[in-house]
Amino acid sequence: MASVVYENLPPVLDSKSEQPPPPLFDGTTRLYMAYTCPFAQRVWITRNYKGLQDEIKLVAFDLQDKPAWYKEKVYPSNKVPSLEHNGKIIGESLDLINYVDSNFEGPSLLPDDPEKRKFAEELFSYSDTFIKDVSTSFKGDTAKEAGPAFDFLEKALDKFDDGPFFLGQFSLVDIAYIPFVDGYQMILSEGFKYDATIGRPKLAAWIEELNKMDVYKQTKYFKDPKQLFEYYRIRFLQ
Known about the structure:
This is Glutathione S-transferase L3. Helices cover 48% and strands 9% of the residues. It contains nine helices and five strands; from the N terminus they run E-E-H-E-H-E-E-H-H-H-H-H-H-H. The protein has helices at residues 38-49, 68-74, 93-103, 114-136, 142-156, 172-191, 201-210, 214-217, 225-236, and strands spanning 12-13, 29-33, 56-61, 82-85, 88-91. Strands 1-3-2-4-5 form a five-stranded mixed sheet, covered by helices on one side. Helix 1 (38-49) links the parallel strand 2 and strand 3 (56-61). The chain starts with 11 loop residues before the first strand and ends with a helix.
């Protein structure tokens, strides 16, 4: 891991905000994101772990009130995150964390071991199902519907024994899951009195280990479970 860098985060831009200098596509690498978006948080963690705070500039938006110039001039889908790099825009968070890991300097976030790489791909593929299953459980029998998704992670964390993470050592797989698992744990424990770590010691140890890492803690924007739940309500339950 690169040495920890503490940065002053740029202000959040909304529909009234002018496009910040310098001009678009001037060679500056920018991560368009929202501090409150777990998908963007994936790329933010990757950037920080690799020590790219000076190389990849953050442009943060209000998710509910983005400036019109972002859709018109940068990314027509109007989603975050996206990355401006080498004169092009790249989107989709799982694609982006792999892109940043492969195209920028800094410690690699995927192992060379073919078995671990294969398992990483399986876990990347499952991540959308995990997010959907847990998010939609908020409007049903939460413990019954969310439980199997957390059981899947508990079993996955038992695959390798050379560390507390999915591939043993910290990797892109942990980055793909932790923004959601940590957020769900906050919502479920506060709003539904359900602790996903009970009976899942590997999951509990994994969450604890990640919350010791400055590169992750620096990206934890939500402090209030109600605010976090509102994000998921708008994103998944409408």
